[in-house]
Specification:
Strand content: 5-15%
Shape: globular
Number of strands: 7
CATH class of the largest domain: Alpha Beta
Number of domains: 2
Helix content: 40-55%
CATH topology of the largest domain: Rossmann fold
Length: 233
């Protein structure tokens, strides 16, 4: 099987070095408790995060404070009986919306992944993923990024391109030429740093442009912006 190439979509604040996440909470959810406990020990050692294992989403305590930091939930999707319907129906505490959920041990299924993203899932780790990929994913998602394959991103953009309509023309008309250029670059997965270099702008100016773009087209993250661009540009 070919190596899976991943991209991340997010607001880059700086460097890109692997940082520690002391005090951040990570939950490893799945039936294989022994493997999860060993993995939890390893992740804590490498990241400083507090790791807890559990059999299902009910194992994750409810957080009443809406300002609390989002937790990372690594949900083992390897069971042949697992389905998105079961995951959603078991989410009584709204974990998919409240926290960062990543499906692990996933078989490549682009249709399922598209649906999962719409339900609030933040990323996917496939069977062939190793320890290095796991740590990169943790770093990315805890920094508010999405962790998706380039193949999935391509499908999202192409599917959107096939469904172009004349709706939301007002949103496109409200964008400046510079904002349209930046939105195009953003939809191709370029980071803020790359966009800044491309258009000879400061990273702060790029962040300001992206803030205004999101406000004008009424989206809240880079994936939504990329999908909007696929539909309307």
């Amino acid at each position: 099987m070919p190596t899976m190439e991943f991209i991340t979509l997010y607001h880059r604040g700086g460097g890109g070095r692997m940082t520690t996440f002391s005090g951040r909470q990570i939950y490893l959810i799945g039936a294989n408790i022994l493997i999860n406990e060993l993995l939890a020990h390893f992740i804590t050692e490498k990241t400083g995060a507090v790791c807890t294992t559990g059999a299902n989403l009910h194992s994750i305590p409810v957080v009443e404070d809406s300002t609390a930091e989002k937790r990372l939930v690594l949900y083992d999707f390897s069971n042949s009986h697992d389905s998105l319907e079961e995951l959603i129906s078991s989410d009584k505490n709204n974990i998919l919306q409240r926290d960062y959920v990543v499906l692990t041990n996933v078989s490549n299924n682009l249709n399922m992944e598209c649906e999962a993203l719409q339900c609030g899932v933040r990323g996917f780790l496939y069977y062939q993923g190793g320890i290095e990929t796991l740590l990169k994913m943790i770093h990315s998602v805890l920094n508010s990024e999405l962790w998706i394959s380039r193949e999935l991103m391509t499908k999202l953009l192409l599917d959107g391109g096939l469904k172009k309509t004349t709706k939301a023309k007002g949103g496109l008309a409200s964008l400046t030429a510079q904002e349209i250029n930046i939105l195009n670059s953003l939809s191709m997965g370029f980071t803020n740093a790359v966009i800044a270099d491309t258009y000879c702008l400061s990273p702060h100016t790029v962040k300001t442009h992206i803030y205004h773009i999101f406000k004008k087209i009424k989206v809240t993250n880079r994936l939504q912006a990329a999908m909007w661009a696929a539909h309307h540009m």
